Structures
1.
Amino acid sequence: MSMNAAGSRLKQGGGVIDRYREFLPVSNSTPIVSLGEGNTPLVYSAKLSARIGRGCEVFVKNEGVNPTGSFKDRGMTVAVSKAIERGARTLICASTGNTSASAAAYAARAGIECTVILPAGKIASGKLLQAFVHGAKIIAIDGNFDDALRIVRKLGQRESLVIVNSINPDRIAGQKTAAFEIADLLGDAPDFHLLPLGNAGNLTAYWAGYREYQGNGRSKRLPAMFGFQAAGAAPIFHDKIIERPETIASAIRIGNPASWRQARAAIDQSKGVVDLVTDEQIIEAQIWLAQHEGIFVEPASAAAIAGLFKCCNAKDAAYSFQKIPEESRIVCTVTGHGLKDPDALTARMGKITSVAANEEDVLRALGL
Ligand code: AN7
């Protein structure tokens, strides 16, 4: 088989633009920049379902298996394809890590430049390495994500720079496809959708996707949207800008979300809630999911699982699962891969001491 034939055949298994072209702002003349993103596993969790009980089913949408390890790739394929169509030469973004990793990879794929503006010392090591290895120009600022985004908004006024943060509507358009995939697989939208809330673009995108699918008859239901913020970075929950957001979940260390208004509207319209989870609850949920379902997610992603547990258990939660009807379908989106942020857990692992390289010593170490 010629290279071209193999190439075009592989292209049929392409990314979210190939699969959901009719719902996306692309035309036949848009050059598609894709790494085969999307089509991520929707994993049924018997153990999470049992925690809630009453015949409810819980699914985990594992976005960590996207090409750069997070959900950002869904929006980036659309944003970068459109940027190339418009003749862009340089992408720019502010990021807590995953947007910059994704932008850097898609820029490399497209053969254009990428500049990323990052809060110094606050990016998980795997994500920073991704920006580096894909050849992005990395600028660290003595400030947080909100400061970085403020600068990027200004720089984006220059014609030579295309912003690929979620204030670019092409990003949100691409991220809607996760809701399409879920509705296609389940045969309808779920009853409840839980996810972490940072800059609030993803919750906004899911809601837009579910509404669009319902609007054109592909699904019937609309889920209640539940967003979970880290306790130290919960501007939407407290309804006020947090000047110095802090959390171990560095991806959602955001005090002034760009899509605040849209996410608030989505939560209200869907009769959902916004709630917060502590760093301890986040890490506990991260380890629980890794040890009970074999799914390793980064701390920000574990906020969705921590939120599920909080709804199950706590009397003080903004929402209690006592109110969830029997046999409800619940989807939790886990947004990024655990390997991106090894430092969040290595302290817990402790030191592993070695034993002599023989069967007896290994058996003794095993207590056998
Ligand atoms: C793993 O990369 O904002 O509410 O600059 O990386 O749509 O912002 C990342 C956000 C959740 C929050 N989980 O999603 C960035 C950035 C992970 C993330 C979020 C992010 P949004």
2.
Amino acid sequence: MSHVKQEKWSSGTAFLLAAIGSAVGLGNIYRFPYVVGENGGGAFVLVYLAVVIVFGIPLVMTELTIGRRRQVPPITAYVQLSEGKKSQSFWRLAGFSSVLTPLGILGFYFVIAGWTLNYVYSILTGQLNNLVEGQTQQVFNDMMESPATLIFWMTLSVLITGFIISRGIKAGLEKAVNILMPMLFMILVLLVGYSAFNGGMAETFEFMFTPDFEKINMKTLLEATGQAFFSLSLGSATMLVYGSYLPKEVSIPKMACGVAFADTFVALISGFAIFPIIFTNGLPLDSGPNLVFVTLPVIFDQMPFGQVFGILFFLLLAFAAITSTISLYEPAVSNLEERGIFSRKKASMVVGGGLWCLAGLSALSMNVLSDWHPVGFNETVAGMNIMDLLEYLSANGMMLVNGLLAAIFLGWIVNRSESLEELGLGDGKLYKFWRFIIKYVVPPVAGYLIIDFIGYGFI
Ligand code: PHE
């Protein structure tokens, strides 16, 4: 089946940088702080850390293993590893679903990536100077109501990503992360330093690390699991495809720990860049999605060198977004290229064209198409626009389904010897523990969350 020899990462470090680039994204810097804010701080952080350790790391290991075992793209990986099993055609579908999911995610992610680019430009050109809170809300609303603005910046993010993808693994993806990740890290350190200098650190520590146990409930667990899936790029073929480019001699468990550690570290650090500013200015912690695009610009405007830091902050978001969009775009391209129907360049263009249409619909769903709502399914869905719907179905629903399927596949279907050999842990306690988690812990928990997602939950 395979017509094209797959490129590989040049080294374990190159993979690590790309995988961290994928994991660290809008989920860490934009979403994590506001979800922590909405869910009462320390309690959420504690549950989140537990979820990353208990499910996150074993699942990253699982997906990397499925990807690397035969060193082929995701759908073929599922097909080859279920060779000779009665359920093979089902697993082909599982592979297919895992490749479709990131496309759904990109349908909304590209739009938000566009917002971040637009904000860099707006601050640079002084459009956010001398504004008070209500006015930054107005700026944000104006952007949402302008199809041209949304589509322009969204298109730019599709083009940048498509260009990187079309150049291939070494000349495209690796090169991009080699430039973007160090810059991202430097900006983050600068921002935290700046925040620390302006006070509010003690309150931030207390808020993030003093769990109020009474606030821990099923909803916290649900939110934390969803956040961990999204943040670790699980359930979306990204880890499958990045794993398939991983040289055989590199240790998967070590890489999985490295990715999970770095990703969680950046999420926490983002909290330390944002919350001190919120505390010293006496602003609400639970302003939700508005936190970054509406609340922060007011403060940047009032702080010394605020404009510079505002630009840096949105650049940080933009870089983090781009290193994630490439990882969401790659699985489909990798599959198309493998079939030999398209060259990588053509495949990048075809996928990009489709994604541009989808993200275009998302962008329009906030203005000209805002009256369109899906019918049926469940109550949650009834009031959504296309962008919310894409997010809900792909990031909340399908990611869990794909993650569950990956765990069942490697835990129950694929011969034990395959994962035993690929993980390189020997047949000791560590391997047995990993296997126990993906066989007996992940399926019931993910299954429960999926039932809840469909709307028959008990919470
Ligand atoms: N992990 C990325 C983020 O936190 C999003 C992502 C999800 C990327 C799934 C790839 C696959 O923003």
3.
Amino acid sequence: MPYLDNFNRPISYLRISITDRCNLRCVYCMPPEGVSWRLHHEILRYEEIELIVRAAASLGISKVRLTGGEPLVRLGFVEFVRMLARIPGIDDLAMTTNGTLLAEYAAELAQAGLKRVNVSLDTLQPERFRQITQRGEFATVFEGIYAAREAGLVPLKLNTVVVRGLNDDEVVDLARLTLEGDWHVRFIEWMPLGTNAAWASDGYVSVGEVRRRIEDALGELMPAKVGVGNGPARYYRFPGAVGTIGFISPISEHFCYQCNRLRLTADGRLRPCLLSDYEIDLRTPLRQGADLAEIRELLIRSIGAKPERHHLDESVSPRERAMSEIGG
Ligand code: SAM
Ligand code: SF4
């Protein structure tokens, strides 16, 4: 049974950023002045993460998502997936990726025990893809998406962060994909984090607005159920469509009351809430020889520190880290 936090929420999900490095530079994710990567020794070793996941599993955490930075740029990632897939109690092992290296690794990852992937895709226009990511090839990402579907890493969800003036004019085109095939597209509200926070007032688009624009163009959406990994998204589909549309609204309609997760940063900090800078250091105790029982206690402390909700509506936004360091 998952451990309950102080607000009776069962904590069953750990999101792990395994690297702060990325081969893209999405304008809404990385600070405009660029990022300086953490040094090698600051990043948790795979064995250290494995011990944390074992401790988490002993507390009833059954779902792990690997993210970054870009998880696939870290060497030895496939073997690391294999290590985690063997941990008893972890029955849902997923990854969030930008898709650029998926074509190369999808089959191996599935074979190693990865169950599903979410791919970030903010545009269907190759030129715009380059503009948003500041590098990267749209066609390569699509090859990756098809390779992942082929390898059985499904249901594969496409995540689109909607930013005004950047890609908000494409929400109807992205939604139309779900009429054309088995696509699951989720629209996510852009969140002010780190030094990108200044963008908030200009870039933010509520999912309510996104939904209105989609329904005005394509007709009414009906509530839908999606098999696994629902998380905070609300799902809909057009009548008769195979694909689904999800809306994730951390800002306009926060879903904190059903938050079930902890986050681990690449440098070994447990973050009870994405939108608060409060963190608990696991790396120092790990390197001083902490065993599973001690790490378990720190996980329990982190669960106990989960706030009831975030306070973005009172203009309290996290400043310390960019999204690429926390993993989304
Ligand atoms: N590199 C991988 C990727 O892009 O999928 C994993 C890490 S990325 C930080 C995880 C997710 O966070 C992506 O879907 C990305 O679009 C999203 N993201 C990044 N910055 C964001 C922001 N400020 N607000 C909302 N989502 C954001
Ligand atoms: Fe990299 Fe993902 Fe951030 Fe884009 S959203 S810069 S791919 S970490």
